[in-house]
UniProtKB/TrEMBL annotation:
Name of this protein: Sulfurtransferase
Lineage: Bacteria, Pseudomonadati, Pseudomonadota, Gammaproteobacteria, Moraxellales
A single GO molecular function term of this UniProt record: sulfur carrier activity
Provenance organism: Moraxella macacae 0408225
Main location: cytoplasm
Gene Ontology CC entries for this record: cytoplasm
Function recorded in the entry: Part of a sulfur-relay system.
Catalytic residues identified in the record: C109
Protein keywords: Cytoplasm, Transferase
Cellular localization per UniProt: Cytoplasm
SUPFAM superfamilies, per database record: DsrC, the gamma subunit of dissimilatory sulfite reductase
GO biological process, one term: tRNA wobble position uridine thiolation
Family: Belongs to the dsrC/tusE family.
Length: 110
């Protein structure tokens, strides 16, 4: 168990939730603090879409499928890799988005 400032959740060795069902918006906020990200409405729209992807396909998306799925499900946000990198403060978009969404690390991800 790892204490995330008043929220206790079990994390795996990569810092992702051990059980995606334990995810809450408050846990996402605490995980985001570790990545120096302040989550807002846009972040939560993306995280919700990523969780929907996981439910539909039973695996965490890597970057290309993630961007394709987000462009289909959140077309008004016009998200691409560069926008996601800025939004999530990282070059490891799929890794951080899945982590904040409470999902396992994507396959073949650093």
């Amino acid at each position: 168990m790892t204490n995330l400032t008043n929220i206790t959740a079990e994390l795996d060795c990569d810092g992702h939730l051990a059980d995606p069902n334990d995810w809450t918006p408050d846990i996402a906020k605490q995980l985001a603090k570790n990545l120096e990200i302040q989550l807002d409405e846009t972040h939560f729209l993306v995280l919700s879409a990523v969780r929907d992807y996981y439910q539909a396909f039973s695996h965490s998306p890597t970057t290309r499928p993630l961007i394709k799925y987000l462009s289909q499900t959140l077309p008004n946000l016009q998200l691409d890799n560069a926008k996601l990198q800025t939004l999530f403060n990282t070059g490891l978009v799929a890794r951080h988005v899945n982590r904040l969404a409470g999902l396992p690390k994507p396959a073949n991800c650093l």
